[in-house]
Amino acid sequence: MSLEQKQNLLVKEIIDKGFNIDNFQKFIDQRHDLEEWDYDELVEVIKKFQDQQNDYFQVLKCNRTIPNAISKLENLTSTVVGYEKVQKGIFMSTYVYFKIETKPINWVVKRTYEEFIALKNMLNKHYNVPNIPNQRKSPVEFTYIKQLRHLQMFLNFILLDQEIRSLPVIQDFLSLDSFQPNQVIPYTTLSGDFGIRINKQIACFIKQSDYFLNNVSPLQKKAYKLVKQLMKNMQQQNQTMFQLSDVYKELFKESKAQNARLKDCYIIASHLFEQLSKIQTDNIKILNETIYAQQRFQFHQITPLKDILNQREKHHNQVFDFSNKLKAKKEKLYQQGEVVKWDLDESYLDSFKLEQIKSTPQIAFQCMCKTDNSHLQVLKNQFGQINLRAYEAIESVIKYASAQFKDHLEKFAQLMTTSINQYQKLWSDTLENLAVS
Protein backbone atom coordinates (compact mmCIF):
# COMPACT_ATOMS: atom_id res chain seq x y z
CA MET A 1 0.00 0.00 0.00
CA SER A 2 1.17 3.52 -0.77
CA LEU A 3 2.12 6.14 1.83
CA GLU A 4 -0.89 8.22 0.76
CA GLN A 5 -3.28 5.34 1.46
CA LYS A 6 -1.78 4.93 4.96
CA GLN A 7 -2.14 8.67 5.60
CA ASN A 8 -5.75 8.59 4.44
CA LEU A 9 -6.39 5.67 6.80
CA LEU A 10 -4.99 7.65 9.76
CA VAL A 11 -7.06 10.71 8.87
CA LYS A 12 -10.23 8.62 8.57
CA GLU A 13 -9.73 6.44 11.68
CA ILE A 14 -7.88 8.79 14.06
CA ILE A 15 -8.48 12.44 13.13
CA ASP A 16 -12.00 12.26 11.69
CA LYS A 17 -13.21 10.10 14.60
CA GLY A 18 -11.86 12.58 17.13
CA PHE A 19 -9.10 10.50 18.70
CA ASN A 20 -6.17 12.39 20.22
CA ILE A 21 -3.20 12.47 17.85
CA ASP A 22 -0.59 12.80 20.59
CA ASN A 23 -2.05 9.78 22.39
CA PHE A 24 -1.86 7.75 19.19
CA GLN A 25 1.78 8.73 18.64
CA LYS A 26 2.59 7.62 22.18
CA PHE A 27 0.67 4.38 21.61
CA ILE A 28 2.74 3.41 18.54
CA ASP A 29 5.92 4.11 20.51
CA GLN A 30 8.95 5.07 18.34
CA ARG A 31 7.64 3.86 14.97
CA HIS A 32 6.32 7.21 13.70
CA ASP A 33 7.51 6.66 10.13
CA LEU A 34 4.59 5.25 8.12
CA GLU A 35 7.02 3.58 5.72
CA GLU A 36 7.87 1.14 8.52
CA TRP A 37 4.27 -0.03 8.82
CA ASP A 38 2.56 -2.68 6.75
CA TYR A 39 -1.01 -1.58 5.91
CA ASP A 40 -2.72 -4.56 7.62
CA GLU A 41 -0.43 -4.11 10.63
CA LEU A 42 -1.44 -0.44 10.79
CA VAL A 43 -5.15 -1.37 10.65
CA GLU A 44 -4.66 -3.77 13.57
CA VAL A 45 -2.78 -1.27 15.76
CA ILE A 46 -5.41 1.43 15.04
CA LYS A 47 -8.16 -0.96 16.19
CA LYS A 48 -6.26 -1.74 19.41
CA PHE A 49 -5.77 1.98 20.05
CA GLN A 50 -9.47 2.71 19.46
CA ASP A 51 -10.52 -0.11 21.81
CA GLN A 52 -8.21 1.26 24.48
CA GLN A 53 -9.48 4.82 24.05
CA ASN A 54 -13.11 3.67 24.19
CA ASP A 55 -12.34 2.19 27.61
CA TYR A 56 -11.39 5.39 29.40
CA PHE A 57 -9.72 4.48 32.67
CA GLN A 58 -7.47 6.48 34.96
CA VAL A 59 -6.27 6.23 38.54
CA LEU A 60 -6.25 9.56 40.38
CA LYS A 61 -4.71 10.42 43.73
CA CYS A 62 -6.64 11.21 46.90
CA ASN A 63 -6.01 11.19 50.66
CA ARG A 64 -4.96 7.88 52.19
CA THR A 65 -7.10 6.31 54.93
CA ILE A 66 -5.24 5.61 58.16
CA PRO A 67 -6.24 2.06 59.30
CA ASN A 68 -8.06 1.91 62.63
CA ALA A 69 -8.68 -0.77 65.27
CA ILE A 70 -11.28 -2.64 63.17
CA SER A 71 -9.80 -2.27 59.66
CA LYS A 72 -8.34 -5.76 59.40
CA LEU A 73 -10.01 -7.39 62.37
CA GLU A 74 -11.26 -10.89 61.53
CA ASN A 75 -14.68 -12.14 62.67
CA LEU A 76 -15.84 -8.58 63.37
CA THR A 77 -19.56 -8.33 64.14
CA SER A 78 -21.65 -5.39 65.28
CA THR A 79 -25.09 -6.41 66.49
CA VAL A 80 -28.07 -4.23 67.37
CA VAL A 81 -29.06 -6.30 70.39
CA GLY A 82 -32.07 -4.27 71.54
CA TYR A 83 -33.52 -0.88 72.34
CA GLU A 84 -34.57 1.09 75.37
CA LYS A 85 -36.74 4.15 75.98
CA VAL A 86 -35.38 7.00 78.08
CA GLN A 87 -37.60 9.78 79.43
CA LYS A 88 -35.50 12.96 79.48
CA GLY A 89 -37.92 14.94 81.60
CA ILE A 90 -41.58 15.62 82.41
CA PHE A 91 -41.97 18.07 79.53
CA MET A 92 -39.57 16.38 77.11
CA SER A 93 -40.00 13.63 74.56
CA THR A 94 -39.05 10.03 75.13
CA TYR A 95 -35.80 9.01 73.41
CA VAL A 96 -35.31 5.54 71.97
CA TYR A 97 -31.73 4.24 72.01
CA PHE A 98 -30.56 1.20 70.07
CA LYS A 99 -27.82 -0.80 71.79
CA ILE A 100 -24.89 -1.94 69.62
CA GLU A 101 -22.39 -4.58 70.68
CA THR A 102 -19.20 -5.04 68.63
CA LYS A 103 -17.30 -8.32 68.97
CA PRO A 104 -14.57 -9.46 69.57
CA ILE A 105 -13.41 -6.05 70.93
CA ASN A 106 -16.44 -5.73 73.25
CA TRP A 107 -17.48 -2.18 72.37
CA VAL A 108 -20.96 -1.29 73.61
CA VAL A 109 -22.70 1.97 72.61
CA LYS A 110 -26.22 3.35 72.37
CA ARG A 111 -27.34 5.25 69.29
CA THR A 112 -30.57 6.94 68.30
CA TYR A 113 -32.27 6.31 64.98
CA GLU A 114 -31.40 9.90 63.99
CA GLU A 115 -27.69 9.19 64.59
CA PHE A 116 -27.85 6.20 62.24
CA ILE A 117 -29.41 8.41 59.55
CA ALA A 118 -26.75 11.09 60.17
CA LEU A 119 -24.01 8.48 59.63
CA LYS A 120 -25.70 7.27 56.45
CA ASN A 121 -25.93 10.84 55.08
CA MET A 122 -22.24 11.51 55.85
CA LEU A 123 -21.12 8.32 54.10
CA ASN A 124 -23.42 8.78 51.11
CA LYS A 125 -21.44 11.80 49.90
CA HIS A 126 -18.52 9.60 48.86
CA TYR A 127 -19.37 5.93 49.44
CA ASN A 128 -22.02 3.38 48.52
CA VAL A 129 -24.14 2.50 51.56
CA PRO A 130 -27.70 1.17 51.97
CA ASN A 131 -30.58 3.50 52.58
CA ILE A 132 -32.26 3.91 55.97
CA PRO A 133 -35.92 4.97 55.69
CA ASN A 134 -36.93 8.14 57.49
CA GLN A 135 -38.14 7.51 61.01
CA ARG A 136 -41.85 7.31 61.68
CA LYS A 137 -42.51 7.86 65.35
CA SER A 138 -45.01 5.45 66.79
CA PRO A 139 -45.90 4.26 70.29
CA VAL A 140 -46.24 0.71 68.96
CA GLU A 141 -43.35 -1.51 70.08
CA PHE A 142 -43.39 -3.37 66.76
CA THR A 143 -42.16 -0.16 65.06
CA TYR A 144 -38.93 -0.24 67.05
CA ILE A 145 -38.41 -3.91 66.25
CA LYS A 146 -38.71 -3.16 62.51
CA GLN A 147 -36.27 -0.28 62.86
CA LEU A 148 -33.83 -2.49 64.76
CA ARG A 149 -33.74 -5.06 61.97
CA HIS A 150 -33.18 -2.43 59.30
CA LEU A 151 -30.37 -0.82 61.28
CA GLN A 152 -28.77 -4.26 61.67
CA MET A 153 -28.78 -4.78 57.90
CA PHE A 154 -27.22 -1.33 57.44
CA LEU A 155 -24.39 -2.20 59.86
CA ASN A 156 -23.85 -5.60 58.22
CA PHE A 157 -23.40 -3.93 54.83
CA ILE A 158 -20.92 -1.22 55.83
CA LEU A 159 -18.78 -3.60 57.90
CA LEU A 160 -18.37 -5.91 54.90
CA ASP A 161 -16.68 -3.03 53.03
CA GLN A 162 -13.10 -2.68 54.30
CA GLU A 163 -12.76 0.81 52.79
CA ILE A 164 -15.78 2.07 54.75
CA ARG A 165 -15.13 0.32 58.04
CA SER A 166 -11.57 1.72 58.03
CA LEU A 167 -12.92 5.28 58.25
CA PRO A 168 -12.42 7.00 61.63
CA VAL A 169 -16.12 7.93 61.72
CA ILE A 170 -17.09 4.21 61.81
CA GLN A 171 -14.83 3.53 64.78
CA ASP A 172 -16.25 6.61 66.53
CA PHE A 173 -19.80 5.48 65.86
CA LEU A 174 -19.20 2.01 67.31
CA SER A 175 -16.98 2.95 70.27
CA LEU A 176 -17.58 6.48 71.62
CA ASP A 177 -20.27 7.29 74.16
CA SER A 178 -21.20 10.45 72.24
CA PHE A 179 -21.30 10.73 68.47
CA GLN A 180 -20.89 14.00 66.57
CA PRO A 181 -23.35 14.03 63.65
CA ASN A 182 -22.95 16.00 60.41
CA GLN A 183 -19.16 15.71 60.35
CA VAL A 184 -17.37 16.58 57.13
CA ILE A 185 -15.75 13.35 55.91
CA PRO A 186 -12.97 13.84 53.32
CA TYR A 187 -12.84 11.27 50.55
CA THR A 188 -10.07 8.81 51.36
CA THR A 189 -9.10 5.29 50.31
CA LEU A 190 -6.77 2.71 51.83
CA SER A 191 -4.52 2.86 48.74
CA GLY A 192 -4.57 6.66 48.42
CA ASP A 193 -6.01 6.61 44.92
CA PHE A 194 -9.32 5.98 43.15
CA GLY A 195 -10.37 4.90 39.69
CA ILE A 196 -12.50 6.59 37.05
CA ARG A 197 -13.92 4.67 34.13
CA ILE A 198 -16.06 5.25 31.04
CA ASN A 199 -16.75 2.44 28.57
CA LYS A 200 -19.54 0.80 26.60
CA GLN A 201 -19.86 -2.12 29.02
CA ILE A 202 -20.66 0.16 31.98
CA ALA A 203 -22.97 2.29 29.83
CA CYS A 204 -24.88 -0.84 28.77
CA PHE A 205 -25.03 -2.09 32.38
CA ILE A 206 -26.31 1.30 33.59
CA LYS A 207 -28.96 1.39 30.87
CA GLN A 208 -30.17 -2.10 31.75
CA SER A 209 -30.08 -1.29 35.48
CA ASP A 210 -32.11 1.87 34.97
CA TYR A 211 -34.72 -0.12 33.05
CA PHE A 212 -34.65 -2.87 35.72
CA LEU A 213 -35.02 -0.45 38.65
CA ASN A 214 -37.89 1.42 37.02
CA ASN A 215 -39.74 -1.83 36.37
CA VAL A 216 -38.87 -3.67 39.57
CA SER A 217 -39.77 -0.78 41.88
CA PRO A 218 -43.59 -1.18 41.61
CA LEU A 219 -43.24 -4.98 41.81
CA GLN A 220 -41.13 -4.78 44.97
CA LYS A 221 -43.62 -2.34 46.43
CA LYS A 222 -46.40 -4.78 45.63
CA ALA A 223 -44.48 -7.72 47.15
CA TYR A 224 -43.77 -5.67 50.28
CA LYS A 225 -47.46 -4.78 50.66
CA LEU A 226 -48.61 -8.35 49.98
CA VAL A 227 -46.27 -9.83 52.61
CA LYS A 228 -47.47 -7.16 55.02
CA GLN A 229 -51.08 -8.07 54.19
CA LEU A 230 -50.27 -11.77 54.67
CA MET A 231 -49.02 -11.00 58.17
CA LYS A 232 -52.21 -9.10 58.96
CA ASN A 233 -54.33 -12.01 57.68
CA MET A 234 -52.31 -14.43 59.81
CA GLN A 235 -52.75 -12.18 62.85
CA GLN A 236 -56.53 -12.09 62.27
CA GLN A 237 -56.59 -15.85 61.87
CA ASN A 238 -54.52 -16.18 65.03
CA GLN A 239 -56.95 -13.99 66.94
CA THR A 240 -59.87 -16.08 65.70
CA MET A 241 -58.23 -19.32 66.85
CA PHE A 242 -57.46 -17.79 70.25
CA GLN A 243 -61.11 -16.72 70.58
CA LEU A 244 -62.24 -20.21 69.60
CA SER A 245 -60.07 -21.67 72.34
CA ASP A 246 -61.73 -19.37 74.90
CA VAL A 247 -65.21 -20.29 73.64
CA TYR A 248 -64.49 -24.00 73.99
CA LYS A 249 -63.21 -23.40 77.52
CA GLU A 250 -66.51 -21.70 78.36
CA LEU A 251 -68.42 -24.61 76.80
CA PHE A 252 -66.37 -27.00 78.93
CA LYS A 253 -67.34 -25.08 82.08
CA GLU A 254 -71.04 -25.09 81.12
CA SER A 255 -71.05 -28.84 80.36
CA LYS A 256 -69.88 -30.15 83.75
CA ALA A 257 -73.16 -31.89 84.51
CA GLN A 258 -73.64 -33.13 80.95
CA ASN A 259 -72.16 -35.99 78.95
CA ALA A 260 -68.51 -36.62 79.97
CA ARG A 261 -67.48 -37.42 76.41
CA LEU A 262 -68.85 -34.07 75.18
CA LYS A 263 -67.00 -32.33 78.00
CA ASP A 264 -63.73 -34.06 76.99
CA CYS A 265 -64.22 -32.97 73.36
CA TYR A 266 -64.64 -29.36 74.45
CA ILE A 267 -61.40 -29.35 76.42
CA ILE A 268 -59.53 -31.16 73.60
CA ALA A 269 -60.85 -28.58 71.09
CA SER A 270 -59.88 -25.72 73.40
CA HIS A 271 -56.35 -27.12 73.75
CA LEU A 272 -56.12 -27.70 69.98
CA PHE A 273 -56.97 -24.11 69.02
CA GLU A 274 -54.82 -22.72 71.81
CA GLN A 275 -51.81 -24.63 70.47
CA LEU A 276 -52.68 -23.69 66.87
CA SER A 277 -52.72 -20.07 67.98
CA LYS A 278 -49.27 -20.43 69.56
CA ILE A 279 -47.82 -22.06 66.43
CA GLN A 280 -49.41 -19.31 64.30
CA THR A 281 -47.83 -16.68 66.57
CA ASP A 282 -44.45 -18.29 65.94
CA ASN A 283 -45.16 -18.37 62.17
CA ILE A 284 -45.96 -14.65 62.18
CA LYS A 285 -42.70 -13.97 64.00
CA ILE A 286 -40.80 -16.14 61.49
CA LEU A 287 -42.35 -14.31 58.53
CA ASN A 288 -41.68 -10.93 60.12
CA GLU A 289 -38.02 -11.69 60.84
CA THR A 290 -37.24 -13.23 57.45
CA ILE A 291 -39.25 -12.50 54.28
CA TYR A 292 -40.96 -9.33 55.50
CA ALA A 293 -37.72 -7.84 56.89
CA GLN A 294 -35.87 -8.58 53.64
CA GLN A 295 -38.66 -7.21 51.41
CA ARG A 296 -38.73 -4.04 53.49
CA PHE A 297 -34.95 -3.67 53.18
CA GLN A 298 -34.94 -4.21 49.40
CA PHE A 299 -37.88 -1.86 48.89
CA HIS A 300 -35.98 1.00 50.56
CA GLN A 301 -32.79 0.44 48.49
CA ILE A 302 -34.37 1.40 45.15
CA THR A 303 -34.50 5.15 45.86
CA PRO A 304 -30.76 5.70 46.60
CA LEU A 305 -29.78 3.68 43.52
CA LYS A 306 -32.03 5.88 41.41
CA ASP A 307 -30.44 8.94 43.03
CA ILE A 308 -26.98 7.77 41.97
CA LEU A 309 -28.20 7.16 38.42
CA ASN A 310 -29.70 10.67 38.36
CA GLN A 311 -26.36 12.10 39.52
CA ARG A 312 -24.61 10.16 36.78
CA GLU A 313 -27.06 11.48 34.17
CA LYS A 314 -26.49 15.04 35.41
CA HIS A 315 -22.70 14.70 35.07
CA HIS A 316 -23.08 13.07 31.65
CA ASN A 317 -25.21 15.99 30.44
CA GLN A 318 -22.63 18.48 31.75
CA VAL A 319 -19.88 16.78 29.71
CA PHE A 320 -22.12 16.51 26.64
CA ASP A 321 -23.31 20.15 26.78
CA PHE A 322 -19.86 21.63 27.42
CA SER A 323 -18.35 19.45 24.69
CA ASN A 324 -20.91 20.67 22.13
CA LYS A 325 -20.42 24.32 23.12
CA LEU A 326 -16.64 23.90 22.92
CA LYS A 327 -16.93 22.30 19.49
CA ALA A 328 -19.04 25.23 18.23
CA LYS A 329 -16.52 27.67 19.73
CA LYS A 330 -13.60 25.94 17.99
CA GLU A 331 -15.42 25.92 14.64
CA LYS A 332 -16.04 29.67 14.98
CA LEU A 333 -12.42 30.37 15.95
CA TYR A 334 -11.14 28.30 13.03
CA GLN A 335 -13.38 30.14 10.56
CA GLN A 336 -12.18 33.49 11.89
CA GLY A 337 -8.57 32.36 11.42
CA GLU A 338 -7.17 34.55 14.22
CA VAL A 339 -4.61 32.13 15.68
CA VAL A 340 -3.78 34.52 18.55
CA LYS A 341 -7.26 33.81 19.96
CA TRP A 342 -6.90 30.04 19.75
CA ASP A 343 -5.32 29.61 23.22
CA LEU A 344 -2.65 27.22 21.91
CA ASP A 345 -0.02 25.51 24.04
CA GLU A 346 3.42 27.09 23.66
CA SER A 347 4.78 23.85 22.16
CA TYR A 348 2.64 24.47 19.04
CA LEU A 349 3.79 28.03 18.38
CA ASP A 350 6.79 27.39 16.12
CA SER A 351 6.04 28.17 12.47
CA PHE A 352 6.22 24.57 11.20
CA LYS A 353 3.74 23.12 13.72
CA LEU A 354 1.51 26.17 13.39
CA GLU A 355 1.20 25.70 9.64
CA GLN A 356 0.33 22.03 10.14
CA ILE A 357 -2.36 22.96 12.66
CA LYS A 358 -3.85 25.70 10.49
CA SER A 359 -4.03 23.43 7.44
CA THR A 360 -6.25 20.73 9.03
CA PRO A 361 -9.39 21.64 11.03
CA GLN A 362 -9.46 18.29 12.91
CA ILE A 363 -5.90 18.84 14.18
CA ALA A 364 -6.66 22.49 14.97
CA PHE A 365 -9.71 21.49 17.03
CA GLN A 366 -7.55 19.17 19.16
CA CYS A 367 -4.89 21.80 19.78
CA MET A 368 -6.84 25.03 20.31
CA CYS A 369 -8.65 26.20 23.50
CA LYS A 370 -6.13 24.73 25.95
CA THR A 371 -7.98 26.12 29.01
CA ASP A 372 -11.38 24.85 27.88
CA ASN A 373 -9.88 21.47 27.01
CA SER A 374 -8.55 21.21 30.56
CA HIS A 375 -11.97 22.06 31.99
CA LEU A 376 -13.60 19.46 29.73
CA GLN A 377 -11.10 16.91 31.05
CA VAL A 378 -12.08 17.79 34.64
CA LEU A 379 -15.77 17.33 33.78
CA LYS A 380 -14.98 14.05 32.05
CA ASN A 381 -13.07 12.80 35.11
CA GLN A 382 -15.94 13.80 37.41
CA PHE A 383 -18.33 11.88 35.17
CA GLY A 384 -15.92 8.92 35.08
CA GLN A 385 -15.89 8.82 38.88
CA ILE A 386 -19.69 8.94 39.32
CA ASN A 387 -20.03 6.52 36.36
CA LEU A 388 -17.85 3.92 38.09
CA ARG A 389 -19.48 4.65 41.45
CA ALA A 390 -22.96 4.06 39.99
CA TYR A 391 -21.81 0.75 38.49
CA GLU A 392 -20.22 -0.41 41.75
CA ALA A 393 -23.17 0.79 43.86
CA ILE A 394 -25.77 -1.08 41.82
CA GLU A 395 -23.65 -4.20 41.64
CA SER A 396 -22.83 -4.23 45.37
CA VAL A 397 -26.39 -3.51 46.54
CA ILE A 398 -27.91 -6.14 44.24
CA LYS A 399 -25.22 -8.66 45.23
CA TYR A 400 -25.77 -7.98 48.93
CA ALA A 401 -29.57 -7.97 48.63
CA SER A 402 -29.59 -11.27 46.70
CA ALA A 403 -27.31 -12.92 49.29
CA GLN A 404 -29.47 -11.61 52.13
CA PHE A 405 -32.68 -12.70 50.39
CA LYS A 406 -31.26 -16.22 49.93
CA ASP A 407 -30.22 -16.39 53.61
CA HIS A 408 -33.60 -15.13 54.83
CA LEU A 409 -35.46 -17.48 52.51
CA GLU A 410 -33.42 -20.45 53.76
CA LYS A 411 -34.08 -19.43 57.36
CA PHE A 412 -37.79 -19.05 56.59
CA ALA A 413 -37.91 -22.54 55.00
CA GLN A 414 -36.00 -24.16 57.89
CA LEU A 415 -38.18 -22.58 60.58
CA MET A 416 -41.40 -23.36 58.71
CA THR A 417 -40.27 -26.99 58.42
CA THR A 418 -40.07 -27.06 62.22
CA SER A 419 -43.50 -25.44 62.34
CA ILE A 420 -44.98 -28.12 60.07
CA ASN A 421 -43.56 -30.81 62.37
CA GLN A 422 -45.24 -29.06 65.30
CA TYR A 423 -48.55 -29.10 63.39
CA GLN A 424 -48.16 -32.82 62.68
CA LYS A 425 -47.45 -33.60 66.33
CA LEU A 426 -50.39 -31.48 67.47
CA TRP A 427 -52.85 -33.26 65.14
CA SER A 428 -51.40 -36.65 66.10
CA ASP A 429 -51.78 -35.86 69.84
CA THR A 430 -55.32 -34.60 69.22
CA LEU A 431 -56.29 -37.87 67.52
CA GLU A 432 -54.84 -39.88 70.42
CA ASN A 433 -56.70 -37.79 72.98
CA LEU A 434 -59.97 -38.23 71.05
CA ALA A 435 -59.41 -41.97 70.86
CA VAL A 436 -59.21 -42.37 74.65
CA SER A 437 -61.96 -39.88 75.51
Automatic annotation (TrEMBL):
This is PX domain-containing protein. Residues 76-181 form the PX domain. GO terms for molecular function: phosphatidylinositol binding. One of its GO terms (cellular component) is endosome. It comes from the Eukaryota. It holds the Pfam family PX.
